Amino acid sequence: SLLRLLHLLSLTSKASTYDLYRTLERLTDNVGSQEHRSRYRPLLRIGLQWKHLKLLKRGGRGHDEAGISATKDGDLAIKCPSCPHPGINLPDNWENVPEEQRFLYALVVCMDANFRLKNQLVSNYSADPGLGIGWAYMVAREPYEAYVLSKADKEAISTCVGFLALAHALTRFVRGLRYTGVGGAFCGRGEMILPNGVGNLQKGKRYANMDYIFASAVQASKLIEARPLIPKFHEPAHEEKNHEQFSFNFAIGVGKTDGEVPERVWAGHNGLGGSTKMQGPGSRHDVLDDHFGFWNWQKYCGMGTTLMRRYKAAVIERNRQVEAHRGFTESLPSAMLTTWDAICVEWDADRFPKTAANPFAVCGAHISQAAVKEQLALEEKERAQKIPALHATGPSVWLAMGLELEDTQRRIRMKAKAQRESPTAHRTQTLTEQRAALSKNVKNWESLRSIYIPGLLQYHTEMGLQSSTGAEDEGESKVEDVNLFLPSRLPAERREAACVEGLLDMEAKLHRAQCLDSLAVLCRTLRLKTRMVQFKNRNVRGQRQGTRSRALIDRVHQRALGSVEQYRAAREALLAISGPGEWENALKPLLNADIRSYVDPEGRRKDGPGRREIWEDGHAPSNLDEANVDLEDIGTFPEERGRREGTGRTKQTMSWIWRVGTVGVGEDGEGDDDILRSEWARSRARVHRCKEEILLL
């Protein structure tokens, strides 16, 4: 009874035998006034032997006439009932089923490494050989290490983007370690550890180690074709170009599998790192096999409840996606749908690596400000051949100069705000110099304004405004706050009459490109900030280093806020000129809730205002314009979520800013077909994945 109690306590709490023994000592004498003979080493040995005997008993080795010595590799592992096992859970002639049903009998294997289950150079295999290495979940040691040693001269190392796991495995942190961690192979559907699917890592996550572990785990399966995919959580950190073929969302036959099983398995075993790190090599193997078996046993017993819960959720999701896709399809021309469906079918039928046309990619890239300026310059050149130019500085160049001046105004306003919050002599001097330079540039720009907006003087006279705003006189507003009176700033009824012909169209094109450029800069900045925050959370310790790291992240954060202000100002001007239209489908209002990284979940819903994050949809006060909420409400770091609130990633939706970078939003609608095709293909894929999930369950 005592051994069973200590065994279950160890499995559920991940406590070491030493901690359990100390608990028994305290139960005997909590005061510590009496000196007792230590029974720790006998308990340690007896515990290991008892667990091993129970493992053999539950593996049915007592019914084999050949005895324990005839146990084969992987015989003592609890096998996943949802994995395909010919002759056990597969129908007759399963190999001859139609192509569209073959996915029902496919094996989904997920692989990853864990660098927390280290092992120091304590003892050796001669003194601690282990009781059954290779009989359950760990691979057999001798052939595995011989294979890895034969590939030791090769520097082929796998890289996992963004998490710095490999970087840690190859630094001074590995000094004095026998193993830097373990690599594992798991069932992607049942979330169980495969027999002989875990192996030690000698130096990082090298291809040789992971190749052997994969081959060992699937050696009993009939491997016909291997198709690599990237887990859903890791996918946004990889390159986007032509990566749809590696996505679980677009892969045939995987259902709603996310590929993140290793993260869940390792999360349940990271607690073992403290106890197995100082164990001998053989004892560590036995302990890991024991805990892996407990994990599989829990999954095995709860398989019925899990499948029923997933099935009910899958039916609801299937119905929702089917209705959404039907409504989307009915709104599109049938000829266009026929073409798109043929592209999707060809893509699905193509083998890896895919060479067929990608229905999910948007071919047209957005046009940048530089490209728009070049295009307008060519148009001016052609117009000058027919009509004499009003000035050597063309209207498009003049407008571009005005937009750059507005950007400078926004930057100076941000610096002025920082100077007011924490004034320094250096900041004051720098701000004064920048204001003087801006004032001079504004004066030069305003000297040309009457040429391209001849009606502005009359408007100023009627409204009682000054015709020049470049000077910064005492008592007047700062130069960064003055109105430059671009065409979009004039009242709608006065624009056409006040401006020269074609000026409004030029400004609209420049603002449209400015919106797309600012979104591209915002996404790049958020991606950089995400990696910096992840590095800080994992590596930076101490107040001094933490303060420096946060100051650097704050600078990047301010750059992102500058892009947000630029987009909102450009979109407001574009809306004033063009009015509501189809372009708003791509260039949406940029809410604070949209300004988040590709890995950040949507914020929690709050009843009151929060300084750390942002207003939530439907929870902001009715008199508040969410697009213009103070940028201070956007937190520098991701929102902290409690255990009850979860991570928010189970049903995570990516902000629209990460999908608009390649969307064509030209006036003539170019690129709309690509956008619609991509969204329709994604909707079609969601329906297929939901239907596959029901069949798999």
From TrEMBL:
A Pfam family matched in the record: KDZ
Signal sequence, start to end: 1-17
Keywords, alphabetical: Signal
Domain of life: Eukaryota
InterPro entries tied to this protein: KDZ
The protein's name in its UniProt record: CxC2-like cysteine cluster KDZ transposase-associated domain-containing protein
Native source organism of the sequence: Pholiota conissans
